[in-house]
Specification:
The protein has two domains: 238 residues, 4-Layer Sandwich (Metallo-beta-lactamase, Chain A); 165 residues, Metallo-hydrolase/oxidoreductase (Rossmann fold, 3-Layer(aba) Sandwich), CATH 3.40.50.10710. The chain contains 13 helices and 19 strands. Bound molecules: zinc ion.
Length: 417
């Protein structure tokens, strides 16, 4: 089995890995959009035979998880190439598409399920459901020609599925030749080498404390596709005696997941439809979208009458109208529950100013979707691979300082597993 990383050997995101069996048949793991690319920038596909013009030796593309930096270029791949992804991950992305056109459009030929082996030509794929901020995310064990590659995808140990990480470390796959491991927190200069990250359950406690100390609304700006965070905010709302408010986008995505995830119909959960979403529904004449949530819908008048009853989990695009309708005022608090780096973007700065002008405090409550270096060390120790190949890091040249038997590779070069 041979491998080449097309993208991701020296950057966080944009992952694309081509795996070739000895007979020449190939699989691709992830076809991500680079995080460095601007939103309107056109990014070409990696040069994989079969992506643009038919090549029967390309057996398929396996998407580890529903984050753009891992699936964002799939829509450009020729339609006949078979796609594999988690069932719920595909459902989530397809549901999100109406509100977020970059998402969705998946019609996979096969689904990844925890510990369910998939045979694709000479390859055996064993998905390991993992702990990450993306929903239905997997690490992948790929076997062919008697060799074994374990690709972490994106992984952490401090989220709501931390038990999956513990289980992997306790009962790791045996005889792994190559561990291809993400290193988001392997940073230039070693800034995060010793850092550990707050767990989602500790974050939940901080949300509860904030809700108890705040008179007005708690308005959390987050990603509507971060289901771990939705669970954290919902649990915090319940524990502080408040009602969780989702927007229609978040409610639609949550409804596409499993029934244990907070969604319309849950006690203490209401749905608010912001103006932009009302317009979208009207223009598409898809009125069933609001009819479906009619029994738990909440209108601005009710929200403004007593904002202290509510905790919101909404996109930051709702800030302006929540301020205008006086649902969010100086008696409430806005919460930044996204990557801190987005706060310094032009739209992040504009939001900060908008809130400051109204005297609304903005606090950060967030934890990383990626493993700390100490947790990555535990993973390497447990899997005990022959070699560790870095990916998804800005400082792959630092792996050798932190982990044993590191073998870095550059983008595009083939090497043997
Ligand atoms: Zn990623």
């Amino acid at each position: 089995m041979r491998i080449r990383i097309h993208r991701g050997a020296h950057e966080i995101g944009g992952n694309c890995i081509e795996v070739a069996a000895d007979d020449g048949r190939r699989l691709v793991l992830d076809v991500g959009r680079p995080l460095s690319a601007g939103w309107d920038e056109v990014v070409g596909l990696p040069e994989v035979s079969g992506f643009a013009t038919p090549d029967p030796s390309l057996l398929g593309v396996v998407i580890s998880h529903p984050h753009l930096d891992h699936y964002g270029l799939v829509s450009q791949v020729a339609e006949k190439v078979p796609i594999y992804i988690g069932k719920e991950a595909a459902a989530l992305l397809n549901a999100a598409r109406f509100f977020s056109p970059v998402s969705g459009g998946f019609d996979p030929v096969g689904h990844l399920q925890h510990a369910q082996e998939l045979t694709v030509g000479p390859f055996t794929i064993t998905p390991h459901l993992n702990d990450h901020s993306a929903y239905d995310a997997y690490s992948l064990l790929i076997e062919a020609d008697g060799r074994r590659l374990f690709y972490t995808g994106d992984i952490r140990a401090h989220g709501r599925k931390h038990k999956m990480f513990k289980a992997l470390v306790k009962r790791p796959p045996a005889d792994v030749n190559v561990l291809m491991m993400e290193g988001t927190h392997v940073r230039v200069g070693g800034a995060h080498d010793e850092a550990t990250f707050e767990t989602e359950s500790k974050l939940e406690k901080r949300f509860v404390k904030l809700a108890k100390e705040t008179e007005g609304a708690i308005v959390t700006f987050g990603s509507m596709q971060n289901i771990d965070r939705l669970v954290t905010v919902y649990r915090a709302a319940k524990r502080s005696g408040r009602v969780l408010i989702m927007d229609l986008y978040g409610a639609t995505v949550a409804a596409a997941t499993r029934s244990s995830i907070p969604q319309p119909g849950f006690k203490g959960l209401r749905v608010y439809v912001p103006l932009l979403q009302r317009i979208k529904v009207k223009e598409a004449a898809e009125f069933w979208r609001v009819q479906d949530i009619a029994s738990c819908r909440v209108f601005p008048e009710e929200l403004a009458a007593d904002p202290g009853r509510f905790v919101f989990h909404v996109p930051s695009s709702t800030a302006r109208e929540l301020l205008k309708s006086e649902v969010l005022d100086a008696s409430g608090v806005a919460v930044w529950s996204l990557w801190e780096g987005y706060r310094s973007t032009p739209s992040g700065k504009a939001l900060e100013k908008l809130l400051a002008d109204k005297g609304v405090e903005l606090v950060s409550l967030h934890t990383s979707g990626h493993a700390s270096v100490p947790d990555l060390k535990k993973l390497v120790e447990a899997l005990d691979p022959d070699r560790v190949v870095p990916i998804h890091s800005e400082a792959t040249d630092r792996f050798a300082e932190l982990f044993p038997r590191v073998e870095p590779h550059t983008d595009r070069a083939w090497w043997a597993v």
